[in-house]
Design brief:
Layout lengths: L3 E9 L4 E9 L11 E3 L5 E3 L7 E6 L6 H12 L1 H6 L2 E7 L3 H11 L4 E4 L4 H5 L3 E2 L10 E2 L2 E5 L5 E6 L9 H12 L2
Parallel strand pairs: 5-6, 6-7
Antiparallel strand pairs: 1-2, 3-4, 5-10, 8-9, 10-11
Length: 183
């Protein structure tokens, strides 16, 4: 898959002209990622636009209450001050329902949003589907992945793991965020 396509149209009523085009949204570094509309752990619908104006670390993870995902989200929780020093916010995204994500956030003291892609549309758009997860035929989870977006929503760093047991390189995430400070 090369990217997510969205049809866009524009009509100039003064001149009677219409334009129809295709906007390619991609998950490539240097490009704008696809938008989404998914609920957070409090069932408030969030979109990518909600996170503009600050650097964002979108952290996709396979499942709440699993050992590696808990370690990962708690590592982000424990890095809250350095992340804030870089002007960054963390947004976790899993395929779990909002109720499970709320319990996960409360149990682990997570102060950042955990979004619920229970329809799996966002993980499709971001090309991070892990099909037949954990050997469960037909069960799709998110691949563990991290996208760093700048204040304008452009992807500046991307990491996707084929191994759900592998955590991201947290020091590399901090290095990438520090590079955004000098640009």
């Amino acid at each position: 898959m090369l990217g997510f396509q969205a049809k866009a149209s524009y009509q100039d009523t003064n001149n009677g002209l219409s334009y129809i085009g295709v906007l390619i949204l991609s998950t490539k570094v240097g490009q704008k990622p696809p938008d989404f509309q998914i609920p957070d752990q409090n069932r408030t619908t969030r979109s990518l636009k909600d996170f503009l104006g600050k650097k964002s670390v979108l952290a996709f993870f396979p499942g709440a209450f699993t050992a590696v995902c808990t370690r990962e989200m708690c590592a982000f929780r424990d890095s809250a001050q350095p992340l804030m020093d870089f002007g960054a916010q963390v947004v976790g995204i899993s395929v779990n329902d909002p109720f499970t994500n709320k319990a996960f956030a409360e149990t682990n003291g997570l102060s950042f949003l955990i979004l619920s892609d229970y329809t799996r549309e966002t993980i499709k758009k971001y090309e991070v589907l892990h099909e037949n997860f954990a050997g469960l035929d037909g069960y799709t989870a998110a691949k563990r992945s991290v996208f760093i977006l700048d204040e304008n929503g452009t992807i500046r760093y991307k990491w996707i793991s084929e191994d759900p047991g592998k955590e991201p390189d947290y020091e590399e995430i901090m290095r990438q965020l520090s590079r955004l400070l000098i640009k």
